Amino acid sequence: MSAETSRDLRLEIAHVLFIDIVGYSKLLHNQQSEVLRELNEVVRGTEQFRAADSAATLLRLPTGDGMALIFRESPEAPAKCALEIAQALKRHRQVQVRMGIHSGPVNEVTDINERANIAGAGINLAQRVMDCGDAGHILLSKRVAEDLENHERWRPYLHELGEAMVKHGVGIRLVNLVTEDLGNPQVPAKIQHKREARAILARRARRKGRNALILGLLIALAAIGLGFFLLRDRLLRRPIETQMDAKGIAVLPFENFSDDKENAFFADGIQDDILTSLARIKDLRVISRTSVMGYRG
C-alpha cells in the first residue's frame, strides 16, 4: 500500500448484518435463483432497509448465497432488520437463512468495476459470527449485545452462548437473539459440539484423578500389608500362657543345678527328647522350644 493510499484510508465503525441462505449449494440452479430472488424481495421490503437506503446510510454487498448489509448509524438497525426479515420469511418457508451481526471497523474501497465497496474487520467478523449459527439463528457478537442490553426492550431477548473459536483461532463471545416467536432458541450445533467435547474432557480428567486416588490407596494398602507380613512375628508375639489351650503343652527349659556346666547340654537334650515324643501325639499342640526359651532361669 502506497503512502498516499494509507493517508486516504478512512476507518469508521459500521454495524453489519450478514445473511446466508442455508443449504444454498445443494439447490439446483433454478432453485438458487428463485430463493435468492425471494430473499432480496424480503430484505428490500423491510422498514429498516428502506429507511437506511433513503438516508444513504446503507451499503449492500451481494455474497453469492446471501448478502451483507452495512448500516452506518445505529447498532439497533441491523438487529431490527434481522427480526423484520425473520418475520417476513415465515411466509417463505423454503428460504432458510442464518444471520450474524457485528459492529466493527470498515473502510471504503473501489472494486474492479470502479464502484464503491467496503471491507474491513467489521465485515469479516460479522461473517464469522453468522458461520456459527444454524437455520433460523440470529447471532450477535458480544460487542453488539452490550450496546443493545442498555435498552430495556432488547434485554429479555439476549441469551449468552459463551465463546466460540472461529477462523485463525480467534475467539468470539456470542449471544443469541430470540424473541417469543422469532429466531432459533436452540444452541447452535457448532457450540453444542464444543460443549460436549469439553464435558467429555472434564469427565476424563475426573476419572483420571479418581483412578490415581484408587491406585494410591491400593499402593498404601499393599505397603501396609507387606509391612504387617514382615513384622507379623513381632506384632503377634504373645506370652506362652496366652498361646496355651486345652490341648496344648509347653516343655520349659531344665535347669542345671550341678557344678559341672557341661551338664547343661544334657538338660537341653532331655527337653528336646520330650518335645519330640510329645509332637508324635496327633491332637496335642506342642509349643516350640524357641517360644519357651524366654522362661530359662
User: What oligomeric arrangement do these chains adopt?
Assistant: single chain
CATH structural class of the largest domain? Alpha Beta
**Number of distinct beta strands:** 10
Largest sheet: 8 strands, mixed
Helix content: 40-55%
CATH topology-level name of the largest domain: Alpha-Beta Plaits
Structural class: alpha+beta
CATH superfamily of the largest domain: Nucleotide cyclase, GGDEF domain
- How far do the termini sit from each other? 110 Å
Q: What would the keywords be for this entry?
A:
single chain; 297 residues; alpha+beta; Alpha-Beta Plaits; 3 domains; eight-stranded mixed β-sheet; two-stranded parallel sheet; 10 strands; rod-shaped; disordered N terminus
Give a quick summary of the entry.
The protein has 297 residues and is α+β, with helices and mostly antiparallel strands. It has helices spanning 3-8, 29-44, 47-54, 76-88, 121-131, 142-148, 189-230, 232-236, 240-243, 263-279, 289-292; strands at 11-21, 58-62, 66-71, 97-110, 116-119, 138-141, 158-165, 171-177, 248-249, 285-286. 45% of the residues lie in helices and 21% in strands.
